Amino acid sequence: MNTAAQVKEILIDVLQLPSDMEFDEETALLGAIPEFDSMAVVTVLTAIEETFGIEIDDDEISADIFENFGALSEFVEEKV
């Protein structure tokens, strides 16, 4: 399974979204999905760290990463 597919699964699981929800590079996240609040951001980051075996430092996190699905997937891909 590729990185983007794994990130999609994390978002669906953490945000409790429909399993058939479609994500593409431009799918807006923060501010567009009501379930994606500040607590969800922390939970998503924790799930990403656990799934990919990476560590995300606080200074690496910005709103830009959560602007859309493509930005989040690219961030994770760079960390892996």
Molecular structure report:
- The longest helix is centred in the middle third of the chain and has 15 residues.
- The chain has three helices and no strands.
- The chain is mainly alpha-helical and 80 residues long.
- α1 crosses α2 and α1 packs across α3.
- The two termini are 14 Å apart.
- Helices cover 49% and strands 0% of the residues.
- It has one domain: Non-ribosomal Peptide Synthetase Peptidyl Carrier Protein, Chain A.
Short summary of the structure?
It holds the Pfam family PP-binding. This is Phosphopantetheine-binding protein. This protein is mainly alpha-helical and 80 residues long.
Sequence-ordered SSE layout with sheet pairings:
Blueprint: H1 3-15, H2 38-52, H3 69-79
Helix pairs in contact: 1-2, 1-3
